[in-house]
Design brief:
By secondary structure, this protein is an alpha+beta fold. The protein is built from 5 helices and 12 strands.
Length: about 210
Amino acid sequence: MMHPDTELRYINDVIGVGIVATKLIPKGTIVWISDDLDMTLKKDFVESLDETRRRVVDKYSYLSDDGDYYILHWDHARYLNHSFHPTCIDTVFEFNLAARDIYPGEQLTCDYGIVGVDEDFECVPEEGTSRTRVRADDYLYFSQEWDEMAKEAFKYFNSVKQPLKYLIKEEYAEEVKAVAEGLLPLPSILTLFVDESEDDDDEDEDQA
């Protein structure tokens, strides 16, 4: 679910539509959070769809961490556009935070590299960055940068209004509270891409 102080607007002929803030959204605010209205579609089901519907699902959904499901948002969150200078940053807790103050009329964006795309694709050129493509392995090179953005945003978590806080999943609630209070470090976004059990198996094999 997207923050209530956002709406869908036409951006331009190249980008099409995007999500724009209607009021100031302060840094550290939850701007999007996964909720139980989002649709989870089995990969084999999506692959069985006719071309027309599959094209839409492919465009507006993303793969789950294990790659077995497509996640399709029920609200205008599906129109969150990409930027190499994102105004929103992902966390391991299935919500995004405002990476900086987002002013009325500004677009909410995220770095698609953090979602874990299947295939590389070219992006609209942006000033201030040498990146021109989102790559499937971006997490190998930019996870530390994304983690720092999330850590900085989390510093403001308890000092701003959080209209979506009630949707934080119970399994994350205590850890989110501890991270926000500075009692625990924020887990790296890299954990969404790396299977720790596989790493442990590799270490066991190395020691054998």
